[in-house]
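Subject: Sanity check before I submit

Could someone independently write out the structure tokens for this chain? I want to compare against mine line by line before I put it in a report. The sequence has 119 residues.
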Amino acid sequence: MPFVVDALSYAVSFVTLLFVRPTFQDERPRSQARLLAEVAEGVVWLWRRSFLRVIVALIGASNFAFNALPLVMIVRARQGPEGVIALSYAAASRSSTDSRAYETLRPRGRLRKRQSPNR
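---
Independent answer below. Compare away.
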């Protein structure tokens, strides 16, 4: 029964969205720049901002590692429950480790607010 109610709520949401017709953006002239040139411009912009460059790299690595975790857990579950328990503990302890690292680095001034180069 809960799945039927959930599916029905999605169907109602879809039907109500059909009646929404606002324009969310103003009309703009079509850009003559090529897609590759726009992507290159974005990469150059990101490369010039060291903080954002590091954050994007860390988030990308984190996404790769933690999106692979369920697959690793499935494979380890076939070998025995010990591996799954260890991986679950590692995944759960990540947030507490992150908060401890932040609290350790913050008082020493290593993580301080930087002014944006655009200001």
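---
OP: Matches mine. For the report I'm noting this point. The CA atoms of residues 50 and 56 lie 10 Å apart.
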